[in-house]
Structure prediction request, 596 residues.
Amino acid sequence: MAATNTLETPRRKLYWGAVNAVVLIYAFVPVIWIVSLSLKSDGELNNGRYMTTSPTFEAYQQIFSNDDFTRALINSIGICLISTFLALLIGTSAAYAIARLQFPGKKAIVGASLLVAMFPQIALVTPLFSITVAIGIFDTWLGLIIPYITFALPLAIYTLSAFFREIPWELEKAAKMDGATPYQAFRKVIAPLAMPGVFTTAILVFINCWNDFLFALSLTTSTDARTVPAALSYFQGATTFEKPTQAIAAAAVIITIPIVIFVLFFQRRIVAGLTSGAVKG
Amino acid sequence: MSATTTQPGPGRSEAEDEAARIARQRHNEGIRAERRFGLMLCAPAVIVMAAVTAYPIAYAVYLSFMRADLRNPSDREFVGLDNYITILSSPYWWNAFFVTSFITVVGAALQLVLGMALAIVMHRTIVGRGLVRTSALVPYAIVTVVAAFSWRFAWSQGIGWLAGPDSAPLTERWPSLFIILLSEVWKTIPFMALLLMAGLALVPEDLLKAASMDGANAWQRFIKVTVPLMKPAILVALLFRVMDSFRIFDNIFVLTSGANDTSSVSVLAYNNLIRGLNLGIGSAMAVLIFLTIAIVAFVFIKGFGTAAPGADGGR
Prediction:
C-alpha cells in the first residue's frame, strides 16, 4: 500500500489537484460572478455573460464617494473586532469552566446559553429596540456590540467547550501536582494547547457578527453605527445610486475583502496549530 | 469536621490522625476553590446573556398572549391563546412551516455530506493545502445577504448568466425553493467542514494506519474508525446547522421576499412584526419557532446523545 503510494506520487498529486480544482470552482464561481457584475458597464449589464469584457470601476467610485458607505465600513470593522475580542474573552473562560470544573449551576448555564442560541432573533428585535433607547445606547457602537457579544457567546461556549474536552487534561493534573494553582494550570498549560480551538472560534464569531443584518438594521437609525449589510439594503431604494445592480455588487465585493484578509490571517495559525501536533502532543 | 468526633484509635498515633484531618481539609478546600473558580469564570457570560436576553424573551412571551397591534396601540388586552389559535389554523403558517422544514432537513443532509467531503479534502490534500483551506472558507465568510444577491442576479432575467432568455425561476415556487436551498447550502458547507475538520484532526493517525494494516480499505477506515471518533463533532455541527437553518431569513428575504409561497416561518413572523406591526401574532410565531427548535435540540441531545457541554459533567 505504502509502496504503491510512493510510486504513484505524481498521479496522486494530479488527483488531489483535480479535487482541489473542484473545491476552488465551488468556492469562487458565485464570487467571481459578483466581482464581474460589479465591473460591468451599463451597456454590458444586460448581456447575461458571466465575465465582463470591458471592466469599469465606476460602481466603486460611486460607492466610495458616498460617505454613508465608507462610514458603514468603518463601523462594521470596529464593531465586529471589539465584539469578537470580548466574546472570546468571556466565552473562553466560561467554556473552560464548563468543560473542566465541577460547580453548582453548570447545567443551568449550558441550558441558558442554548436558549439564547435557539431563540428566533426576530422576536428580540422589538424589546431590544426599546431597551437600547431607554438606556441611551441606541444607534451607537455599544448598542450593537452588546447584542453581538450576547449572541456570539452560545456559539463560542459551545464550540470551545467541545474543543476543550479533546485536550489531554492529564497535563493539567501534572501541573497541579507540581504545585500550580488552577489558574496557573489554565494559563500556562492549557491555554497554549487550546489556541487552535480559540482561533477557529474567533473566525466563526467574527463572521457571525459581520453577517448580522437584522440587528444592524433595527438598532440603528443613522450612519453613526450602521454596518455595511444594513447600509447595503438601502441601495435597493435606488435613490442614492443610479445603478443599484452594480453598486450592490461593488459594495458586496468591498465587504468581502476584510473577511478574506481576516480568514487568511487566522487560517495560518489554525493550520499551524492543528498540524504542529499541539493538540495530540 | 468529622475529625472532632473521631477518637484516636488504639492502633493509630496522634500524628497519623492529624495528617488525615489536614488532607481531608485540603481536599474540601480544593473542591470549594474549584467551585468558586468555576462560578467566577462563568459569571461574565451569564451576566451578559441574562441582561440582554432574559427581559426580551419574557417580553416576547408576554406579547404572544396579548392583542398588540402598533397601528392600534390603545386596543391592547390579554387574549389568552387566541394568537396561537389564529396562527395554527392558518394555511400560511403551515405552508411556511413546510418550506422551513424542507429547507432545514434537505439542507442539513446536503451540508453534512458535502461538508464532510470538503473537510476531508482540506485535511488530506497533498498539494496546495493552504490555498484550499483558505478558499473553501470564502462562501462562509461572505455576508449572507451578499451571497443571496449573487444568486439572485445570476438568475435575474437579462442580467444573469444562469438565466435563460425566457425563464424566470425566481417567480415560480419550486425553482425558487431549490435556488434558496442552493444558496443556503453553498454558504454553510464551510461551517460544517471547519467544525468537522477540527474533529478529523483529533483522529489518531496510528489508528488509521493500524486499520489499514488489518486490511481495511479507505471507505471502511472512514466508516469504522473516523466517523465513530468524530461523532461528537458531527452532532454538534449538525445541531448548530439545524437550529440556524430553521430561522432562515436573509436568503429568502433577498431572493424572493417570500413571494409564491416561499416564506419561511421567520419571514412570516417578520412580515407580521415589522411590516404588519402586529406584535401579538408576530411574537406568538416567534415563540412557536422557538418551541419547534427546542424540541429538535432536545431530540438531538437526548435521542442521539449529542454532547451538550457540561451536560455529563467534566471527565
